[in-house]
Design brief:
There is one protein chain. The protein is of the alpha/beta class. The protein folds into 4 domains: about 5-180, GAF domain (Beta-Lactamase, 2-Layer Sandwich), CATH 3.30.450; about 180-200 and about 325-425, 3-Layer(bba) Sandwich (Glucose Oxidase, domain 1); about 215-320, PtsI, HPr-binding domain (Enzyme I, Chain A, domain 2, Orthogonal Bundle), CATH 1.10.274.10; about 435-750, TIM Barrel. Helix content is about 45%, strand content about 15%. It has 26 helices and 22 strands. The strands form 3 sheets. It has an 8-stranded mixed beta sheet with strand order 7-14-13-9-10-11-12-8. An 8-stranded parallel beta sheet has the order 21-20-19-18-17-16-15-22. Helix 1 packs antiparallel against helix 2. The longest helix is centred in the first third of the chain and has 25 residues, at about 215-240. It is elongated and about 90 Å long. The structure holds phosphoenolpyruvate (PEP) and magnesium ion (MG). Magnesium ion binds near residues 569, 609 and 632.
């Protein structure tokens, strides 16, 4: 570096000595700025720290007037310092005063300086402050100098993150690292949970920042890159998608990044400034995260995420620690925070210690959400960058009702939530009191309320809620949470346990609904352009009947001595149903021939979730013993809006005229054909939508356990006839109205129906 006495490595060595000195925080910071100024041959070096109120406060300076320390502040975006904090990017200027953002603070006496270099103080992509060096002369700072300043800023970031600087914060001006944060996501599972952050994939904590020997560190970095590349190649060769659910595409991207010269060069340069290999990876990762947080293009963001994952792999290589196995030593009141997570991983945690879960990804119909609901665990998904914004152990509130979280909440917020949790508990108690009251509307329509389930942990909800039975048992969940394909006897064991638990209560088992988004980690699936429209559910069952046959056999055997109901998912044509029915009949004949005890009755139904079936509705009502409307898929296909894609998933209203007309068509034909019909998609569990459904004539609804209480409370106050008249009139009237939601909500309000 030009003219620097000793260069960046000497600077880092001296910094390490200062960090180790047994002195106070202010004195340490004062020494650091003196050292940096001297090393970089600058007249000024200042450190600005970001406060929780969003302003930047001058914490130390060499060269500017000392009186300004702890007095001078900049608002976010104000001046060059505010600008650097906002964009999280270095800024080097030959003449700062000529820059349009320059803001003059008279108390600092900086009017005599021209050369200016400012770098953000970053940690995990978050800006904690700004480090500035200034020169009297007009001066162009070299790349090496900018690099050295960034490395130094990383050391200061550690000092801020360690909490040491908190001790010298002015009263009422807390440092931003501990800033309370409110973030909006989407609700995955209702309930309010208060607890402390546990990262599902713990971050590697880099303790050793400053290298003893740069050559050794370059070699360590290169060796780690070689090992990471080799592991990725191996995974791709094995065609292994089981490792964390990674797909080939992600692995290919990893491979591409692992050879990305720009990325590798930046890490090597960071090592050459005197950092250890792991600190260099972390520094570049932090810059990358800062970019990721500001990136609005979803595709580029995803790529930056991949790069972040790759950096994590590299860190794990360097620090020699594998991802901590989920479930190990979980503290009490844990809130799991993860980028994404599979249902099996969630089940590995000790439920007794969990208070909630927060994900960066994951929609309401994802399987981890289904499992969270089964466990009664508050969960929020789609919280951008949450894994970077929390530190392990931070206090966190998960509001699964509003779909938001509070990180490091202030005491008043915390007590407001504690109150909310108490209120919710009281409401739950009220719902519990409805448990034994029959679900009959004011005008005498008896509604059969059932549960959606898929795991043994769901079953106790039957007694808790007073539901009449299980309207949808998603058999694929057993397959999804298993490490290997469950054998026929394992399947039979689960079905038997379910039937025994339910006793007299009816259970409707849905045959495997895999494929699409429901990937089995141990079953290699071909890449599909449109998995939701792909080879899935009954399509796999008919093309590879071995799997379906063994499941039907397991169901029939488990059902010995009980009535049993089986339904087929994703049926698009009557012919598919008939072929499915033939398979069932063959299995019945086989078991009879071999003298097995049979179920006391067998009903075979069909899920109505592909719109083509609406145009064969009369025929399917004749062919099937019962229908169950899978509105999650039906609406996804009706509106051509991917239920897993957050930009479109909520775009269309289930109470829109077109979806209500589709639902009316099903209800009317089923009634006419005297074919039992129920609704088991998410809309059945939302009181206003459920009001519309009973208005249309549906008398059986299946939903998640937490919905039973609210839906029953609605039913007890509702009149099915009147709601039906309102909807039918609205649908017949036609016109340009898009949705009947407003009219129905007003109707409910007038009649004091809780929705
Ligand atoms: C549906 O599609 O509405 C349904 C109940 O099935 P799943 O959510 O499992 O696809
Ligand atoms: Mg479905």
């Amino acid at each position: 570096m030009r003219g620097a006495p000793g260069g960046p490595r000497v600077l880092l060595r001296r910094l390490r000595e200062i960090m180790a000195e047994p002195i106070g925080a202010q004195e340490r910071l004062d020494k650091i700025v003196v050292l940096i100024a001297a090393n970089m041959v600058a007249e000024v070096c200042s450190v600005y720290v970001l406060r929780a109120d969003g302003t930047l406060e001058l914490y130390a300076t060499e060269g500017l007037k000392r009186e300004a320390v702890h007095l001078t502040t900049m608002r976010a975006g104000e001046g060059l310092v505010g600008l650097i904090a906002e964009v999280a990017h270095p800024l080097a200027l030959a003449d700062a005063q000529a820059h349009p953002s320059f803001s003059y603070k008279p108390e600092t006496g900086e009017e005599i300086y021209h050369g200016f270099l400012g770098v953000p103080i970053l940690r995990a992509g978050n800006t904690l402050g700004v480090l500035v060096v200034q020169n009297r002369a007009h001066r162009t700072y070299t790349e090496e100098e900018i690099e050295a300043a960034q490395t130094t800023a990383m050391v200061v970031a550690e000092m801020i993150a360690s909490g040491e600087l908190q001790t010298i914060a002015q009263p009422g001006a807390a440092i931003a690292l501990k800033k309370p944060l409110y973030l909006q996501g989407v609700s995955l599972s209702e309930g309010v949970g208060l607890g402390h952050v546990v990262l599902h994939e713990p971050r590697v904590v880099v303790k050793n920042l400053i290298a003893e020997n740069a050559d050794v560190e370059v070699e360590r970095l290169d060796a780690a890159i070689r090992r990471v590349r080799a592991t990725i190649d191996e995974l791709i060769e094995r065609g292994d998608v089981a490792d964390g659910g990674e797909h080939r595409e992600v692995l290919e991207t990893f491979r591409m990044f692992a050879h990305d010269q720009g990325w590798l060069r930046r890490m090597r340069e960071a090592v050459l400034t005197g950092l250890t290999a792991e600190a260099a990876v972390e520094r570049v990762q932090s810059d990358n995260r800062a970019r990721m947080m500001r990136q609005t293009d979803p595709y580029l963001r995803e790529r930056l995420h991949d790069l972040d994952d790759l950096a994590n792999r590299l860190l794990h290589q360097l620090v020699g620690r594998d991802f901590v196995v989920a479930g190990s030593e979980l503290p009490d009141n844990a809130i799991i925070v993860a980028r994404s997570m599979g249902p099996a991983a969630l089940l590995d945690y000790d439920r007794a210690k969990l208070r909630g879960i927060v994900l960066e990804e994951g929609g309401p119909t994802s399987h981890v959400a289904i499992v969270a609901r089964a466990l009664g665990l508050p969960a929020v998904g789609r919280v951008d960058n949450v894994t970077s914004l929390v530190e392990p152990g931070d206090a966190l509130i998960v509001d699964g009702v509003a779909g938001e979280i509070q990180i490091r909440p202030r005491p008043d917020v915390e007590s407001a939530y504690a109150e909310k949790a108490r209120l919710r508990a009281r409401r739950m108690e009220q719902y519990r009191r409805l448990r034994d009251i029959p679900a009959v509307t004011r005008d005498g329509a008896a509604i059969d309320l059932r549960l959606n389930a898929g795991l043994l942990v769901d079953l106790p909800h039957l007694e808790e809620t007073g539901a009449h039975g299980i309207g949808l048992f998603r058999t694929e969940i057993q397959f999804m949470v298993a490490q290997a394909m469950p054998s026929t006897s394992e399947q039979q064991k689960l079905y038997r346990a379910v039937l025994e638990h339910c006793g007299e209560a009816p259970v409707t088992f849905r045959t495997l609904d895999i494929g699409g988004d429901k990937v089995l980690p141990y079953m290699s699936a071909a890449e599909e352009e449109n998995p939701a429209l792909g080879w899935r559910a009954i399509r796999i069952g008919l093309d590879r009947p071995g799997l379906l046959r063994s499941q039907i056999r397991a169901l029939l055997k488990a059902g010995a001595g009980h009535p049993i109901e089986i339904m087929l998912p994703m049926v698009a044509t009557v012919e598919e149903f008939v072929r499915g029915r033939d398979i069932v009949n063959r299995e019945i004949a086989y078991l009879r021939r071999h003298g097995h005890e049979m179920p006391t009755s067998i009903a075979l139904g069909v899920m109505v979730e592909v719109p083509s079936l609406l145009f064969q509705i009369r025929e399917i009502c004749m062919a099937a013993d019962f229908l169950s409307v899978g509105s999650n898929d039906l609406l996804q296909f009706l509106f051509a809006a991917d239920r897993e894609n957050r930009q479109v998933a909520q775009r269309y209203d289930p109470l829109s005229v077109s979806s209500l007309r589709a639902l009316r068509l099903i209800a009317d034909h089923a009634l006419e054909a005297d074919c039992r019909v129920s609704v088991c998609g998410e809309i059945a569990g939302r009181p206003l939508e459920a009001l519309a459904l009973i208005g249309l004539g549906f008398r059986s609804l299946s939903m998640s356990p937490s919905s039973i209480g609210p839906v029953k409370a609605m039913l007890l106050a509702a009149e099915a006839e009147a709601a039906g008249a309102l909807i039918r009139e609205g649908l017949d009237r036609g016109g340009e109205a898009y949705s009947l939601r407003g009219a129905l909500a007003a109707f409910a309000e007038r009649r004091q129906i809780p929705v």
